[in-house]
Design brief:
With about 475 residues, the chain is an all-alpha fold. The chain has one domain. It is built from 18 helices and 4 strands. It has a two-stranded antiparallel ribbon. Strands 3-4 form a two-stranded antiparallel ribbon. A hairpin with a 5-residue loop joins strand 1 and strand 2.
């Protein structure tokens, strides 16, 4: 019989957290190791739109073929347990909620036919998110996805710079655009996100990969400057500040010196459009943005009024121009069918309060996923440091304030990348936790009578017995 002051003997098992962590670490092996290639292919087709550089390829429907091929291969290669884990992901649930709200607003829209292109794009948006969640949660695969996204983005930027399409604006003049889905402002938004990923790639790689990152970064910066996008300038400036604050001292100094060279060079040798439009940010009250009914401020004011008229059910996906055109006609200004030029106003007006709530929740979840990878860790079970992911999300969220991107592929790529980064960090923490020494039990002895514990960790020193 044990003495009264003896502690009860504990079972020979690790704590529940260690058991769950070990199971999570083992799940990494269930994923197909080449899934990052499928995610990269969809990113190139849907987000970067690289295949739009050759118009005859549109007849092959590359988006349909890409989604079908990627999902089919993953269905064959990826076990059901990995699929179940991906389909239960909280970011995917938020994405599905947002897509359901979009669909529910279609029957109540002003023009159902105008909503159908958005509804038809939802399966591709969901497929992009699912495929990114099926990437093996390892930092090597996360880095491969981002690195190849940067490289293909650089190829797209090089083609855009060589085969330039020029459009003229009321402020500044000529601006670089594309022949495909992206106008000047959309192109600047994508270039801003990709430049931040390229900076991160250049900071963590060496040799040929670093040279490739720097080359792509240079080309994308040239294209970015030629777009003359004021919203892109604001987004890149804010996101770059976020990226700088997430670095250690050495990298902070290196990036500041690089920016100190690149920004004056862009201002000196860049096109006149870039300088004129950037300087107009400091005199925005005199710009058409404030003074014209086609300016963003007036459009946003009218949009808030439309939302107040129907806060629960919106006017329908992609129907903001219909509602605004009718309002302007009543004001005696016919012929103006303007988009919202603000993702958040667009979501409020087109899909109502539940739609804007779903959109903001997606961005909130993405920010929470990317934040643990933002600051460099000096201690802890994992040292995964990827501040460029949060910076890219900030860039999109800022540029979205000036663009109608409520159903954009850039949105779903940004939140999917953040979700994948969170899964990679969780897997690494699970592996580090499961590798810790486990407590072991010791047989009862006379030591128990003196109030000492019945077991100690295997690595703990046992004090000598005193008679």
């Amino acid at each position: 019989m044990l003495p009264a002051n003896a502690q009860p003997r504990q079972a020979l098992r690790p704590p529940p957290v260690a058991i769950a962590s070990a199971a999570a670490a083992a799940d990494v092996k269930l994923y197909w190791e080449k899934a990052w290639m499928a995610a990269t292919a969809l990113t190139v087709i849907l987000v970067i739109r690289l295949l739009e550089v050759y118009a005859p390829l549109a007849a092959l429907h590359p988006a349909v073929l890409g989604v079908f091929a990627s999902v089919s291969v993953l269905l064959v290669r990826t076990p059901g347990k990995a699929w179940n884990t991906a389909l239960r992901d909280r970011q995917l649930r938020a994405t599905l909620f947002y897509c359901v709200i979009i669909c529910l607003n279609v029957p109540f829209g002003l023009w159902r036919g105008g909503s159908m292109p958005t509804v038809n794009a939802l399966p591709y948006l969901i497929a992009l998110t699912v495929v990114m969640l099926l990437v093996q949660p390892k930092r090597q695969d996360l880095d491969r996805l981002m690195n190849w996204t940067v490289i293909f983005g650089g190829v797209f930027a090089a083609y855009t710079a060589l085969i330039a399409r020029t459009r003229f604006d009321v402020v500044g003049g000529a601006r670089l655009s594309t022949y495909g889905s992206y106008d000047s402002n959309d192109l600047a938004s994508m270039m801003s996100m990709l430049m931040l990923l390229a900076i991160g790639m250049a900071m963590r790689t060496r040799g040929r990969w670093r040279l490739a990152a720097l080359g792509c970064l240079t080309i994308m910066f040239v294209v970015f400057v030629k777009t003359g996008s004021r919203g892109g300038v604001v987004a890149f400036a804010l996101a770059t500040s976020v990226l700088l604050l997430g670095q250690n001292i050495r990298r902070f100094v290196v990036l500041v010196l690089a920016l100190g060279i690149a920004l004056p060079a862009a201002w000196t040798f860049g096109p006149r459009t870039f300088r004129v439009r950037t300087m107009s940010l400091f005199t925005i009250e005199q710009d058409y943005t404030y003074t014209s009914h086609q300016g963003r401020i007036e459009i946003w004011k009218r949009g808030l009024g439309y939302f107040a008229e129907s806060p629960i059910l919106g006017v329908g996906p992609n129907n903001f121009p219909v509602r605004d055109g009718a309002a302007l006609t009543q004001m005696g200004i016919p012929g103006s069918w303007l988009t919202a030029h603000n993702t958040y106003v667009q979501a409020m007006v087109e899909v109502g309060i539940f739609g804007i709530g779903g959109l903001l929740y997606m961005l909130y979840r993405a920010a929470r996923d990317a934040l643990p990878l933002y600051r460099p860790r000096s201690r802890g079970p994992t040292k995964l440091h990827r501040p460029e992911i949060l910076a890219a999300l900030i860039s999109f969220a800022t540029a979205a304030f000036f663009l109608s991107h409520a159903y954009s592929y850039l949105l779903f790529y940004a939140v999917g990348l953040c979700a994948l980064a969170r899964r990679v960090r969780a897997a690494e923490m699970a592996g580090a936790t499961s590798a810790l020494p486990r407590p072991v039990a010791q047989a009862p002895s006379r030591v128990l009578g003196r109030g000492r514990p019945a077991f100690r960790p295997r690595h703990a020193a046992i004090p000598p017995h005193r008679p």
